[in-house]
Amino acid sequence: MMTDERRDDLRKRIETVARYKDIAGATVLEIGADAKGFAAQMLLDAGAARVLSSNYGERWTPGAFGGIERIRLDARRIGEDIAPASIDLVFGIAVLEHIDGLAEFFAGAKQALAPGGLFFVQGGPIWTCAVGHHVGVKGEKGHYRFGIPGANPIPPWAHLAHDRETLPGFLVEQGVWPADARLIADFVYGSPKLNRVGYRSMRALFDASPLTAIDRIEGAFKPPPADMMARIASGPHGGQERYDVAGITFVAS
């Protein structure tokens, strides 16, 4: 849902792009566009000449609206579906955590970028942060959402200390209805909407890509307490330091 807070965040991120590249007259490929086209319109307002506003959701409807062209695009297939050297800016916010195939995405974006083009793509909350489970489940007894105070039943980093079999029992102990606990665990560990790529792995995939790094912007908060860190380190999701990084933006050419 596009809230006033998210719109303000988008504006600030588009303003940040201008620190690296003047987008006046640019052709922009927007990854993971919002349904109402807020970000696409903001990019036009910032001077872009054309925005290819892409999404891969089942409900996404292609069409042209002035300088905005809505296209259905699998981010892993940019290299096959977007003409080489045709894009001045690849832009995406809160998308890296959803793309199950980051190596293909990075490589395709590089191929699509024109000389002097800019890659500015962010992800968050990424899997290894406190709310990296990204839970959004409508159950029998409640609607569970990671970003709503009082609606997130999973304590910080608990998804990294558990797995699909142990999380439901833990949630039931916290007072979650058993059927809902199972739905939550199935989403956290099985939903195709998440790639479950940790901080260290995400950086390694980017560093191994053909993109040339310009900057990396990270949002880091308080790390896990010592007892939780020990549980994470000995569990199935260890070795992905740092666990305090909630979001990461790769700026590249």
Compose a concise summary of this entry.
The protein has 253 residues and is of the alpha/beta class.
Characterize the biggest β-sheet: 8 strands, mixed
Structural class: alpha/beta
Strand order of the largest sheet: 3-4-2-1-5-6-10-9
Shape: globular
Count of β-strands? 10
The CATH topology label of the largest domain is Rossmann fold
According to CATH, the homologous superfamily of the largest domain is: Vaccinia Virus protein VP39
From the alpha carbons, calculate the radius of gyration and give it in angstroms.
19 Å
Please report the number of helical segments: 9
Which ranges are low-confidence, i.e. pLDDT below 50, for 5 or more consecutive residues? none
The ordered string of helix (H) and strand (E) elements is: HEHEEEHEHEEEHHHHEHE
Distance between the termini: 31 Å
Number of domains: 2
Indicate the mean pLDDT.
95
CATH class of the largest domain: Alpha Beta
Percent of residues in beta strands: 15-25%
Just name the CATH architecture of the largest domain.
3-Layer(aba) Sandwich
The helix fraction, in percent, is: 25-40%
